[in-house]
Amino acid sequence: MTLQARPLRLSTADAGFEAAFQARLHWSADTDAQVEQAVTDILAAVRARGDAAVLEFTGRFDGLPADAMQALELAPAELKAAFDGLPAAQRQALEAAAARVRSYHEAQKRASGESWTYRDADGTLLGQKVTPLDRVGIYVPGGKAAYPSSVLMNAIPAHVAGVGEIIMVVPTPRGERNPLVLAAAHVAGVTRAFTIGGAQAIAALAYGTATVPRVDKITGPGNAYVASAKRRVFGQVGIDMIAGPSEILVLADGSTPADWVAMDLFSQAEHDELAQSILLCPDAGYIAQVQQAIDRLLPELPRAAIVAASLNGRGALIQTRSMDEACAISNRIAPEHLEIASAEPHRWEPLLRHAGAIFLGGYTSESLGDYCAGPNHVLPTSSTARFSSPLGVYDFQKRSSLIEVSEQGAQSLGRIASVLAHGEGLQAHARAAEMRIKP
Amino acid sequence: MTLQARPLRLSTADAGFEAAFQARLHWSADTDAQVEQAVTDILAAVRARGDAAVLEFTGRFDGLPADAMQALELAPAELKAAFDGLPAAQRQALEAAAARVRSYHEAQKRASGESWTYRDADGTLLGQKVTPLDRVGIYVPGGKAAYPSSVLMNAIPAHVAGVGEIIMVVPTPRGERNPLVLAAAHVAGVTRAFTIGGAQAIAALAYGTATVPRVDKITGPGNAYVASAKRRVFGQVGIDMIAGPSEILVLADGSTPADWVAMDLFSQAEHDELAQSILLCPDAGYIAQVQQAIDRLLPELPRAAIVAASLNGRGALIQTRSMDEACAISNRIAPEHLEIASAEPHRWEPLLRHAGAIFLGGYTSESLGDYCAGPNHVLPTSSTARFSSPLGVYDFQKRSSLIEVSEQGAQSLGRIASVLAHGEGLQAHARAAEMRIKP
């Protein structure tokens, strides 16, 4: 039987559009009670027994027996050896990607991550001090979804922020190490690395053990156990977002070759069956060309079965009345990746309010952004771009307000604070302000 | 019986210091299974039945029966009337505080909240677009802890960020409205306000009902039910931090009047019995003076019983070997509020790495910052200043990466992306990059 990929065909002019559109977008991050219970037990065990529990779970779940945590630490020399052992093309590509990602995040730090202060007319100093986190943990999945690019995208912003120690954890089931992941850790400047994973690795980072240092924040993607563990330790440590399935939305005016757009839809769909690829376009003829390109190009893909399952189950080709309407629908979706495959990308970009990353013009394939354009590929999914942002230097910094009230300032501010504090029934607050007022 | 407040006396030179210090800091945010179950039920009911469920819970929990949601909305004219009805001193204090808070947050937006772009040598454009959230919800507690200053501190940064609609919810048990809270909503420019609270208000904001619009993020403090509900809806909407008990740490070199420092410790302790006030000082004589001031000033406080309970249960006066050691201990605590009661505050400030807000010099009482200095009084508690920041304009903005790869840029970037994508086994990613390379 021939593999076919037929994304749902919709038109905003159809009567049933709204219901069909909503149904296709629907995705629910329901939690699994069995996973939740297992994670509860694992977190408690690591909190109580530290290294011993981590060793036990690593033996049981990863098939990686070890007598001591030392056997589960990767020395810097091992990371470097992995890098040195790569083909030259991979070494160069990793270094080139790392240099671009570093350069972009340095610009980000200059633009929005520096301390600032100013003085009022009365001499009162106000501002914010921006400082890096002391120590962060980076979770890197092992097995089939082991992505060296994710190591760069998590570790480099931390490094640029000035984080003192970057602790990487990566499970190596049955001892299988991914040389590209280890090499990326070398290139990105990871401080220490442990071959542990799952909820036990999250627990070790959040609580600390005799061997694994306690961190201040944990970032990086993982399976359902990792996601659940991250949610649980939030508050004890900071976490980044909890990612849902990956998504791409392409806005097309018909000016980009249909083959390119088809391949961009594939490149999202090949991640997994739940990934979502959507095309919005006012031109029915172009939509038909994209479907033809899908039919023609699909068979050449090694991951064609996953691509077809994703496009058939969650993909959509949507004809809109206009590019303006396409932009409005895009804002309702708030996609993770948003390509403006248009000859006039700067005409539409200002209309697009919610997206993790916006790729302007036909030459900007999402995959260039995934690997090496410079911006981060860790982006908000599942419509959370309505309120959250790409992973960035700011995720590895925190701010402290600075206030230095002058003697003169204490006179006027003291009177205001006194009135409001009495209004709230907080008399010690009022008295503290009043004491600084000269009689 | 005379009320006494005797914070724990410790010295870093004592053998038992470390254990006593750890024990005093310990605070656990354990969740209550009964609260969790009630919140689960309330969220599900509001999600399924909307307004009807909100009306039912408001009648049951707040003793505020109503036939329709319209009865639970506060019209803008009612907010204005509350403001107009205040004594002139309160009106002026609210407006003065709001003006200073607005001015500070405008500076914050200029310093770290603007969009930026740059172009590479090959013409590739990179940057980030910073946009406000469309609609946010602000939770304001009712009853005994109804703080109008919190309305300003939550709504004004949202307003400065450019948020389109600010929806306030505030429970009014048995119909009791706090005029200062309503007046603050008027001053801060709240768009709509509802007299609903608890988990049902959080659910209404997160899911939307026929009457209450769905928001993108919810900020503001609340009781255990509100905190639990916020945790549960996180992902559906953004949330701010989940706050623990309030804390102050005073670093003193002996140059600030002991009475002032005692009153600053009181002003934190008067919030509730779990609030924590700690003094770090190398001078035993000065610590004794602060204890004497505590003894002398306590009886004059209306909330003396709460202050005494807080100081006796969680307070500490700690003698350090030096100011340097005091700074090091402060970094271990990562306090919400950190006063440097020193003649040389700028000598010590660079040593202080973790704090929500730093108050420099003897004139800068925490209470000035709580009400009107300008910076936000919503700050990270329970040591989360290690990884999180004061509420700010940035909490009401999100960022979208911008990438526009030039034709020339697609040639070099395409080759890098192709190598890395093949290395990860993602061939569609590789093909999408390769297609843009000129033969």
Question: Could you provide a short overview of the structure?
Answer:
Chains A, B: The active site is at residues 336-337. Chain A has 439 residues and is of the alpha/beta class.
Structure description:
The structure is a homodimer of 439-residue chains. The termini of chain A are far apart. Chain A is 46% helix and 16% strand. In chain A, strand 3 and strand 4 form a beta hairpin. The first copy, chain A, is of the alpha/beta class and 439 residues long. The first copy, chain A, has helices at 17-25, 33-49, 51-62, 76-84, 88-112, 148-161, 179-188, 198-207, 224-233, 258-269, 284-297, 304-314, 323-333, 345-348, 366-371, 407-423, 427-435; strands spanning 8-11, 73-74, 116-119, 125-132, 135-139, 165-169, 192-194, 217-219, 238-239, 247-252, 276-281, 316-319, 337-341, 357-360, 397-404. Chain A has 3 domains: 8-29 and 244-373, Rossmann fold, CATH 3.40.50; 33-239, Rossmann fold (3-Layer(aba) Sandwich); 405-434, no CATH class. The mean pLDDT of chain A is 96. In chain A, the strands form 3 sheets. Chain A has a 6-stranded parallel beta sheet with strand order 1-12-11-10-13-14, sandwiched between helices. Chain A has a 6-stranded mixed beta sheet with strand order 2-7-6-5-8-9, with helices on both faces. The longest helix of chain A is centred in the first third of the chain and has 25 residues, at 88-112. At the A-B interface, helix 5, strand 4, helix 10, strand 14 and helix 15 of A face helix 5, strand 4, helix 10, strand 14 and helix 15 of B. Chains A, B: Pfam families: Histidinol_dh (PF00815). Chains A, B: It catalyses: L-histidinol + 2 NAD(+) + H2O = L-histidine + 2 NADH + 3 H(+). Chains A, B: Its EC number is 1.1.1.23.
